[in-house]
Write a structure and sequence with these properties.
By secondary structure, the protein is of the alpha+beta class. The protein contains six helices and six strands. The chain has a six-stranded mixed sheet.
């Protein structure tokens, strides 16, 4: 179902601002926007949660998407958009793509049925809570293992970025408070140096860790079934 057909069938029982946000969220999903989402649809302190990651703050929606990082030419299609109450929106959509890792690409497409639940402020129309759940039953077992391993690794890397951002914010706060405490920072002046890696090294690390994780999941699955 394309955007026009979906929106024509959508019936909003809430305010015009909520309806506008709902349509924008669907548009972002269909376009798999990366770094240029309509951030105004999210509240500053929006809370996000999925089975492997959670965070607070809309600035984190600016970051790279897992789908574009882990899948070749990912596509998204929306099956349903429904208001369950005046402040609760559910969007059911499907993500498809082949794993970027050549080792797991031969298993076939990864198909993820996504159920996105949004809680919105009825006055501003902004999202205040965003929760996602995933159904991988249509994907091959190897592709499922790739999904969970790559998602967990991606979540770990993102959590490191969260810590890095927190350290930067704390450093700024301490500088503005002008306390009478001597601070000896890293000679480079970068308090987050520990969390930064060369792009090539990070890419190689990602691939190696992903391979080990998937092998582990496959071995564990075989042990329980044989």
């Amino acid at each position: 179902m394309d955007f026009g057909e979906l929106c024509n069938e959508f019936e909003c029982m809430s305010s015009p601002s909520v309806e506008s946000t709902a349509r924008q969220l669907v548009r972002d999903i269909l376009e798999l926007r990366q770094g240029n989402r309509a951030l105004g649809t999210f509240a500053t302190t929006v809370k996000y949660k999925d089975p492997v990651r959670s965070f607070t703050g809309r600035d984190k929606y600016k970051r790279q998407l897992w789908a574009t990082d882990a899948l070749e030419n990912p596509t998204a299609s929306v099956q349903q958009m429904e208001m369950l109450s005046t402040s609760e929106l559910h969007i059911k959509w499907t993500l498809r793509g082949k794993p970027k890792s050549p080792i797991f690409r031969i298993a076939g497409d990864l198909v993820v049925r996504v159920n996105s639940k949004f809680t919105l402020n009825q006055i501003s129309g902004q999202v205040i809570e965003h929760e996602e759940s995933w159904d991988l039953s249509e994907s091959p077992l190897v592709s499922q293992a790739y999904f969970w391993a790559s998602r967990r690794l991606f979540a770990t890397i993102e959590a490191g970025k969260d810590v890095s951002g927190s350290i930067k914010d704390l450093t700024k706060d301490m500088a503005t408070e002008n306390k009478n405490v001597e601070i000896y920072p890293d000679p480079t002046g970068d308090p987050t140096k520990f969390f930064q890696m060369d792009d090539n090294f990070q890419r190689d690390f990602y691939q190696i860790a992903l391979f080990i994780a998937v092998v582990y999941f496959v071995v564990q699955f075989l042990r329980t079934t044989l």
